[in-house]
Amino acid sequence: MDKDVFFCLRHVCCLFPCLMHNVVILGAGTGGSIIANRLRKESRRHGLKFTISVIDPEPQHLYQPGLLFLPFGQTTLAKILKPKRRFIHKSIPVIEKAVASLDTEVKAVTLGDGSVVNYDILIIATGAKVAPEETEGLTGEGWYKNRFDFYTLDGARRLQQALANFSGGHLVVNIVDMPIKCPVAPLEFAFLADAYFQKRGIRDKVRISYVTPLDAAFTKPVAAAAFKDILDQKQIELITEFNTGRVEGNQIISWDERTVDFDLLVSIPLHNGADFVKNSDIGDDLGFVWVDNHTLQNEKHPEIFALGDATAVPASKAGSVTHFESETVADNVVRYAKKQQLLKDFDGHSNCFIETGNSRATLIDFSYEVEPLPGKFPYAGIGPLKLLKQTRMNHWGKLAFRLIYWYILLPARWLPIGRHFTMKGKYKPS
For 70-74, what is the mean pLDDT? Predict the structure, then answer.
């Protein structure tokens, strides 16, 4: 063989392994499904040889926004629960096993059955889980009798029966602590409860209280004022700066010994990340993954990325955030594989529909730097959606999102809403 040809072949063969990357994604919920599908498309577009696999023990994919509607009989299991395999491209293998531990030094994930999966690039999308057992007394004798959650499928189904049987008394919606998934969902529950009891003709027999550790109804002042107005209109009591320490009998008790009595408690329990994150060097004590707020890359282990509820970034743990983050993660994984500088691209962009009852909803759109403001969305001048206003159009947008979620968002198809926050159509109230 010609010496120059041999040299060129050897040079190509040496380079080729660098183009092979074993990408392992932990979690097949919203974030895991989107990033698997998106990364498959991006790697092909950039000519990269990625072998992508997804690890998740659950066969069913739960549309979590649907849990808000289930207690009020406004949705069905068939609409919110579907096979996970259906929403991840058939070329991507899904391993239905739990993750037992992570060894960042050897780049290996140990599964519940003792098998080991190695990775070159790891993407963590294991979400967040409720931990009611961490609040003293919450899961005691009254659990699933007159104390419920709606952040789990079991809790939402049991709460549906409890609400149907509730004929009057004090309903308390209590956020134990932050952060939580979908921070506006507890407000939505209180608003929908008001409409639900109106429809049943017993609203005058039900007192509703919204009890939060925050100093207002929301974290930012403009939206907080708007939500406070809605609470006042619906005669829902707002109790702020209440840090729940324990539950005794029919009382929630704060760490400073304030008390709130209840007949029916709807608790939003403490949230944790994955246990394997707690036991590794990549996350905080709650199990959320440390990543750069803008690149979504772990700074200690640059081959590790995270998105969605699994991260410790100061953005909302919401589906829209996961969608926007997935674009940044996909771009930066490609850049990492090509040894290029990463984009500091994610700006904390989030938008959420908030159901307010009686076929109306409002909408917020914000980022790390800019709080929710009034205006029109997604297009300045024409909307058609209105920010911080209760409209039927926003309500229909909320309902339509379920179909968008299943058939556009998860497959990582194009959406007309960009990942970057924009002030177009918004204004700052005086």
Answer: 98
11 has a pLDDT exceeding 50 = no
For each of the domains in the chain, give its residue range(s) and CATH number, in order of start.
Answer: 3-63+82-128+273-337 (3.50.50.60), 130-271 (3.50.50.60), 351-409 (no CATH)
One-letter amino acid of 271: H
Contact 334, 42 (CB under 8 A): yes
The beta-carbon contacts of 152-157 under 8 Å, at least 24 apart in sequence, are 152/67, 153/62, 153/67, 153/70, 153/81, 156/67, 156/70, 156/71, 157/70
- The token duo for 53 is 């696999």
First CA to last CA across the chain, in angstroms?
79
Amino acid letter, residue 375: G
The residues with which 362 forms a beta bridge, in sequence order, are: 354
User: How buried is residue 214: exposed, middle or buried, by Cβ count under 10 Å (0-12/13-18/19+)?
Assistant: middle
Q: How far apart are CA 351 and CA 339, in angstroms?
A: 33
Q: How many CA atoms lie within 13 A of 200 on its CB side?
A: 19
pLDDT digits (tens, 9 = 90+) for 291-344: 999 999 999 999 999 999 999 999 999 999 999 999 999 999 999 999 999 999
Q: Binning pLDDT at 50, 70 and 90, where does residue 215 land?
A: very high
Please, what is the average pLDDT of the chain? 95
* CB-CB contact of 395 with 233 (8 Å): no
Using the predicted structure, report yes or no on whether residue 10 has a pLDDT greater than 60: no
Interval 211-231 mean pLDDT: 97
| Confidence bin at 416 (pLDDT 50/70/90) | confident
pTM, two decimal places: 0.94
